[in-house]
């Protein structure tokens, strides 16, 4: 499918040509707000862990069955498994999230982050445990998921699919929908495998990145009409 009238969300210029035009005067604030939430939740994790590890897990770790502690579908997105995990996700959020935040509103950014992160975490639990239940597959079930990596990968996917170069290629090269889907899947698999490591929720990374690619392709976070100078 080709969208010859679409423009990239990134690199859009204001009528004066002074530079990128933000969809929200406080477009950078969602990043700062998320960083504050990360730190606050991490502090709460420490406090609750001192009271009891079970309490911390029950409040912040997404674990099967999902119906037991349903609030963890949300809280697990903002929690982290250690200081290194917190710092790496915070850095990735700044790098990948900042340009996305400048192209949309604060509310849309936060909703996108939460929804993609939650779906990524749930997919890790559901699909891994479904595979573990199959004979001869040899996959260990997932005991719990924690962290913002799925949402961060969604931001990366969105950034890749909706930048100026991607929009230009889509304008000049006619690509069938099925081929676009295969390219997205292949790219998601490649990026996921590149981050493979013990203890990493690969299915969450894959799901988040794929959701971001699809959302970026349809300009899900774009606000209002935008024009660009030739």
Question: What is CATH's topology name?
Answer: Rhomboid-like fold
Number of helices: 9
Poorly predicted parts: 1-27, 168-172, 225-230
Helix and strand content put the structural class at mainly alpha
Largest sheet: none
User: What value does the Rg take, in angstroms?
Assistant: 19 Å
Integer tally of domains: 1
What is the level 1 CATH name? Mainly Alpha
- Element-by-element helix/strand order: HHHHHHHHH
Number of strands: 0
Gross CATH architecture: Up-down Bundle
Distance between the termini: 23 Å
| Beta-strand content | under 5%
User: How much helix is in the residues?
Assistant: 55-70%
**CATH homology superfamily name:** Rhomboid-like
Provide the residue-averaged pLDDT: 78
What shape does the CA trace take?
A: globular
Task: Provide an overview of this structure.
The protein has 230 residues and is mainly α. The protein has one domain: Up-down Bundle (Rhomboid-like fold), CATH 1.20.1540. It is 61% helix and 0% strand. The protein has 9 helices and no strands. Helix 3 crosses helix 5 and helix 4 packs parallel to helix 6. The longest helix has 27 residues. The chain is globular and about 45 Å long. It starts with 28 loop residues before the first helix and ends in a 13-residue tail after the last helix. The N terminus and C terminus are likely disordered.
């Amino acid at each position: 499918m080709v969208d010859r009238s679409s423009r990239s969300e990134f690199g859009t210029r204001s009528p004066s040509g002074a530079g990128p035009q933000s969809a929200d005067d406080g477009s950078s604030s969602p990043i700062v707000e998320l960083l504050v939430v990360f730190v606050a939740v991490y502090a709460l994790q420490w406090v609750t862990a001192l009271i009891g590890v079970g309490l911390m897990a029950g409040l912040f770790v997404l674990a099967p069955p999902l119906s037991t502690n349903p609030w963890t579908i949300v809280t697990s997105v903002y929690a982290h498994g250690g200081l290194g995990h917190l710092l790496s996700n915070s850095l990735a959020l700044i790098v990948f999230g900042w340009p996305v935040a400048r192209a949309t509103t604060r509310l849309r950014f936060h909703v996108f982050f939460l929804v993609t992160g939650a779906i990524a975490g749930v997919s890790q639990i559901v699909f891994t445990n479904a595979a573990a239940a199959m004979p001869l597959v040899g996959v260990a079930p997932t005991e719990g998921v924690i962290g913002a990596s799925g949402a961060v990968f969604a931001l990366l996917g969105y950034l890749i699919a909706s930048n100026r170069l991607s929009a230009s290629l889509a304008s000049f090269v006619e690509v069938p929908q099925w081929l676009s889907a295969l390219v997205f899947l292949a790219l998601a698999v490649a990026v996921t495998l590149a981050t493979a490591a013990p203890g990493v929720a690969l299915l969450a990374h894959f799901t988040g990145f794929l959701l971001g690619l699809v959302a970026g392709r349809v300009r899900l976070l774009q606000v209002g009409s935008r024009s660009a100078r030739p």
